Amino acid sequence: MIVPVNIVAVQVNQNNSLFVTTGIDYDSDGAVVGSEITSQYTLVPGDDLTGQPTEVVNIANALWTPAVVAAYQASQPKPE
Questions:
Q1: Separation of alpha carbons 50 and 48, rounded Å
Q2: End-to-end CA distance of the chain, in Å?
Q3: CA dihedral 20, 22, 27, 31 (to 10 degrees)
Q4: Calpha distance 52→24 (Å, rounded)
Q5: What pLDDT is stored for residue 1 in this prediction?
Q6: Exposure string (b/e) for 19-57, b if CB count within 10 Å is 16 or more?
Q7: Of 1, 7, 13, 71, whose CB neighbour count within 10 A is largest?
Q8: Strands 18-28, 31-43: parallel, antiparallel or unpaired by DSSP?
Q9: What is the distance of C-alpha 75 from the center of its chain?
Q10: pLDDT number for residue 66
């Protein structure tokens, strides 16, 4: 029997942004027999985490301290 298993991978980038990949692994008796990426996106410090997978929220909450968010915002170009 093939069972779909939701997966979430999170990469922390140098500027503390998060590159998130979600997908599905298809498992058959403990062996992955296929994979499908369903989305890939980047979140930056201070972004709204509403609706994000639990793994993403946990990592962002641990990483994005007020100092990290302020430093990220200060590093962004000011609109002219």
A1: 6
A2: 58
A3: -20
A4: 16
A5: 81
A6: ebebeeeeeeeeeeeeeeeeeeeebbbeeebeebeeebe
A7: 7
A8: antiparallel
A9: 21
A10: 97
Query: Per-residue pLDDT tens for 51-60?
Result: 999 999 999 9
Residue 59 near residue 3, CB atoms below 8 Å:
no
Distance between CA atoms of residues 78 and 64, nearest Å: 21
Read off the tokens for 37: 């990426």
Amino acid 41 reads Y
3-state secondary structure the chain: CEEEEEEEEEEECCCCCEEEEEEEEEEECCEEEEEEEEEEEEECCCCCCCCCCHHHHHHHHHHCCHHHHHHHHHHCCCCC
pLDDT digits (tens, 9 = 90+) for 28-71: 988 888 999 999 999 999 999 999 999 999 999 999 999 999 99
